[in-house]
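Reopening: structure tokens for the zinc ion complex, inputs below.
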Amino acid sequence: MSDEREVKILAIESSCDETSAAVVVNGRKVLSNIIYSQIDIHTLYGGVVPEIASRKHIEKVNQVIKAALKEADCTLDDIDAVAVTYGPGLVGALLVGVGAAKAISYAKKLPLVGVHHIEGHIAANFIESPDLEPPFMCLVVSGGHTHLVKVTGYGEFEILGVTRDDAAGEAFDKVARAIGLGYPGGPKVDKLAKEGNPDAISFPRAKISDNEYDFSFSGLKSAVLNYINSAEMKHEEINRADVAASFQKSVTDVLSEHAVNAAKKYGMKKLALAGGVASNSGLRAAMKELCDKNGIELYYPKPVLCTDNAAMIGAAGYYEYIKGTRHGWDLNAIPNLKLGER
Ligand code: KG4
Ligand code: ZN
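Re-run output (same inputs, fresh job):
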């Protein structure tokens, strides 16, 4: 018999290059999480091509929704609300998910809940760690975002730091391309770094003078490119594994120091990682070491919940739903939606 208090959310995510649908119960239990990744197509072009992403989302969105319902062993009649990412992201890509969600919620008279993509990434931790509750510190590191956030309640955030230029994942992707690893570069740099010496090359660690929690990765990216170019001019072979390991260490040193310093300053005993780069083994190791030293408990989702997926939108959508957040038929894609904005 089904529990009367159960809230089943159908969630849809299409902000970048993954078309995904999921069914999530009470924000924590995933009945299905279907992800169609377009990576193979975009790899041909060395990065995400927005127009192609939108077209693929259109082709796939109904298929992933059907598959998610089937795997969850339910129909739209069992669903209590539809949650969808409405920003930030690629406008054409977002519109596909938003359109599908609106159509279903209109046809079935279901509440519609728009979800912020980063709120989703943070909520992936609620799925992975059913006992985790706010407040906690969260480092969101993805292909498009680098945010250090104090999570003060469900759906309530205080942004302490952001990147001034490239996102952490973007830096990984650009460096990967420079050393010939292809797209998406993060996992490939991570793998190659394991064979290299992280102290072989001293790459810069940017400090921002007017906000100690902000980040900057473009100087580091340029330093890596300069290192490669100057070796090429001198006809010297570079050790790609050493470049990958030294670059990764520069990024993860800065990320872990900022996050742990902020947790200490704000008296947070819990620190969570979120976003695609949260899968990085170097980042997890650096965080674990610093957190252990400072008596902070570290949380991170499993890799499939770190990169874009609809289950995380279902988790965030649930907490928005029980707070009473509802969107109307005028819900639109907002490519530059700020965290905490409605
Ligand atoms: O969260 P996500 O799927 O998309 C955005 O919302 O941006 O993150 C994708 C990013 C890509 O830049 C990818 O290279 C990076 O996450 N990434 C990694 C790893 N796995 C994915 N970066 C470093 N190490 C990894 N293991
Ligand atoms: Zn994302």
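The chain has eleven helices and ten strands. Residues 204 and 220 are 6 Å apart (CA to CA). Marking as resolved unless the reporter disagrees.
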